[in-house]
Design goal:
The chain is an alpha/beta fold. It is built from eleven helices and 13 strands. A hairpin with a 3-residue loop joins strand 8 and strand 9. Helix 6 packs parallel to helix 11.
Length: about 350
């Protein structure tokens, strides 16, 4: 991976690293930018009247009817699915090599959506056009308005076919994007009073309280957040990722690379050779669960196997790009709470 400054880093390199910083110019804004962020249109079913939504770029999308043909980044589509909102097309990691649903697809039946692109820089614009899209929705991992997984080379063509909505997951706590996705789903006609929805939110709040108590009951546990590639091991910083910022607010004590070490990646992470994977001391390790990263069971490096947390079996998965529904965010919080409750001090 290049050690150039963020402006010169490739998004593919950041993706492989487990970092999630999108670079490049934003898609052309659609609609009126003058309204305040956070408001949405009417809450009737799709096609029942005018629809507006103000996204996290400050862009207001206005349509004559609620979107009937929605195309979304896979993780966004999975979150909307949990709220009962169906999309027609997806782009981003959706299907694994063996034909199963990618972890970022959540509970979606991927056989019922049109996959426009399954890997980085892949987006079939012609197929997108055939869906007659009303709106495209994605997340944003920087403060420039860049839509995640929308290729730089074709973003202008894509923007001409339908307006877009961006939900920011940059430098804020998880509860913020969760609320924004809730508002978006509600504007699209989701029943936010359904028992499944309200129960999931309650479980998330209970899991969060459990994590807070776990940290107090077992103080001094250091947590390292990592991602593995064949060449390098990446140690994530906690100041930009929505899940880590939230966990930190609940009291979790994370290993934090120095600012100098993170400088080459815009503050996201530190790159280490496998020979230096023991640079940081940790009691619990959270590892990137995306298919773009090597999973712990497949890491063969001897230096990894000698890490105290690994030898103690104190390694858990991390949802590096959380599916932004309360239902899908319960498990990661509970997993970290349980890991800290059971962790032994090994660092």
């Amino acid at each position: 991976m290049s050690n150039a400054r963020t402006a010169r880093l490739s998004r593919r390199g950041l993706l492989a690293a487990g970092g999630v910083l999108g670079l490049g110019a934003a898609l052309a804004a659609c609609g009126d930018d003058s309204a305040k962020s956070g408001d949405s249109g009417s809450k009737d079913g799709a096609g029942s009247g005018p629809w507006t939504f103000k996204d996290d770029r400050g862009t207001t999308v206005k349509l004559d009817e609620k979107p009937a043909s929605i195309v979304a980044f896979t993780g966004v589509a999975a979150a909307l699915y949990d709220y009962g909102v169906q999309v027609k097309g997806v782009f981003g990691p959706t299907e694994t090599k063996d034909g199963k649903a990618d972890v970022q697809a959540g509970d979606m039946d991927i056989s019922k959506v049109t996959i426009l692109g399954n890997v980085w820089d892949q987006f079939n614009v012609e197929k997108y056009a055939t869906l007659a899209p009303d709106v495209l929705i994605s997340t944003m991992f920087d403060d420039t308005g860049t839509l995640w997984y929308v290729p730089e080379a074709s973003k202008d063509k894509i923007a001409k076919l339908a307006p877009s909505v961006g939900i920011s997951v940059y430098d804020r706590q998880l509860t913020g994007p969760l609320q924004r996705m809730w508002e978006l789903a509600e504007s699209l006609g989701a029943d936010m009073k359904a028992a499944k929805v309200t129960d999931a939110k309650k479980r998330f709040e209970e899991a969060s309280e459990r994590l807070r108590k776990a940290v107090k009951a077992n103080p001094g546990i250091k947590v390292l957040v990592g991602s593995a590639s064949p060449e390098l091991f990446y140690v994530s910083g906690t100041n930009l990722s929505v899940d880590l910022e939230y966990f930190k607010a609940l009291g979790v004590d994370f290993v934090e690379p120095t600012e100098e070490a993170k400088k080459a990646t815009g503050g996201w992470f530190e790159s280490l050779s496998w020979e230096n994977v023991d640079k940081h001391k940790a009691d619990v390790i959270m590892m990137d669960d995306r298919t773009s990263a090597i999973q712990p069971a497949d890491i063969t490096e001897a230096t990894w196997k000698e890490l105290p947390a690994v030898k103690a079996g104190q390694v858990i998965a991390r949802s590096t790009e959380p599916i932004l529904s309360y239902d899908k965010c319960v498990a990661p919080v509970e997993a970290l709470a349980e890991a800290i409750e059971k962790a032994k001090k090994v660092s």
